[in-house]
């Protein structure tokens, strides 16, 4: 009986020693806790670290997204075997902004990362909103997108656009809202059903609980607009009948104020003619965001003729009218 008790006692001591060794040979355990004392420009990041008996350091990663980008200096969490509450005060934050953070702890047995948490910094006392800028975007023949840059002034803000063919306006968009904050917010409203080739006036009106502001009068003109110039060149300018191949290339030059994204889309066509007769014709679509084109074609004049005239045409799009390049001749020998 005494021998059995002795064996049990030895087993218990061995299990206790094994548990202690395992506890010492473990990476830290961490918990990211709720942030404390959150102000307009500062907050306290809090967490819990269990070093499991090994000297351990900790830090906090933080930033305006879950990729963080900022990290506090390493601090010691000691070498205890129980959870220890830790905290770091961070400053230089933007008011009314959501921040992400998590705790990270490291010892000789590894690194442990806590789960992501967030907090929002406090807002300053509300002020009337500010309209920092307005602009039309992509005016087409019958539509446009009105844009504005607003600062909500620390309170939920309602905005709308007034528009019309004079500065008396006469029409307005439905009201929309942006949340409370002090960072500039870009807003936009698409309009359709407009008259082609017409100048419109518009302005922005923004309101919150501290007041209403009216933006400046701004104008835009609907399309379609003529391109500045359609360039074209065909090579060779003299060709053999036995090898009647030509390459026509050029660039669509846009008028001022027309973006490449809006203007450089559509069809370019090349025709070779002899008198009123078309002997070759081919079209291609401009690649998105590119204003240049290149077409390789086979063109043979009628028997007894030695010249062909080259015609290049841009067929227009929602914002540009069709345009023709200057015609020219190619010859055969």
From TrEMBL:
Start-end of Low complexity biased regions: 213-223
GO molecular function: hydrolase activity, acting on glycosyl bonds
Region listing for Disordered, in residue ranges: 61-85, 213-239
Keyword list, A-Z: Glycosidase, Hydrolase, Signal
Family matches, as SUPFAM superfamilies: Fibronectin type III
Domain (Fibronectin type-III): residue spans on this chain: 24-130
One GO-annotated biological process of the protein: carbohydrate metabolic process
The protein, known as: Fibronectin type-III domain-containing protein
Species, as recorded: Conexibacter arvalis
């Amino acid at each position: 009986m005494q021998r059995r008790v002795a064996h049990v006692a030895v087993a218990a001591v061995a299990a206790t020693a094994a548990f202690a060794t395992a506890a010492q040979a473990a990476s830290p355990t961490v918990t990211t806790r709720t942030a404390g004392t959150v102000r307009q420009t500062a907050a306290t990041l809090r967490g819990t670290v269990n070093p499991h008996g090994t000297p351990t350091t900790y830090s906090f990663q933080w930033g305006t997204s879950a990729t963080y980008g900022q990290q506090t200096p390493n601090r010691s969490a000691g070498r205890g075997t129980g959870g220890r509450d830790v905290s770091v005060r961070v400053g230089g934050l933007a008011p009314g902004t959501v921040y992400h953070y998590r705790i990270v702890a490291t010892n000789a047995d590894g690194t442990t990362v806590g789960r992501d948490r967030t907090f929002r910094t406090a807002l300053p006392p509300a002020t009337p909103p500010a309209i920092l800028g307005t602009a039309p975007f992509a005016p087409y023949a019958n539509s446009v997108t009105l844009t504005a840059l607003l600062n909500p002034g620390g309170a939920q803000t309602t905005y709308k656009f007034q528009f019309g063919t004079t500065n008396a306006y006469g029409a307005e968009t439905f009201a929309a809202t942006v949340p409370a904050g002090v960072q500039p917010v870009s807003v936009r409203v698409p309009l359709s059903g407009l008259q082609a080739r017409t100048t419109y006036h518009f302005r922005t009106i923004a309101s919150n609980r501290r007041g209403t502001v009216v933006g400046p009068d701004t104008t835009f003109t609907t399309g379609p607009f003529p391109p500045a110039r359609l360039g074209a060149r065909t090579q060779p300018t003299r060709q053999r009948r036995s090898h009647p191949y030509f390459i026509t290339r050029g660039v669509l030059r846009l008028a001022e104020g027309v973006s490449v994204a809006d203007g450089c889309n559509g069809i370019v066509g090349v025709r070779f003619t002899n008198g009123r007769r078309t002997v070759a014709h081919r079209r291609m679509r401009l690649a998105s965001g590119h204003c240049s084109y290149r077409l390789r074609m086979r063109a043979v004049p009628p028997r007894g003729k030695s010249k062909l005239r080259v015609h290049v045409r841009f067929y227009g799009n929602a914002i540009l009218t069709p345009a023709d390049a200057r015609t020219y001749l190619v010859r055969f020998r």
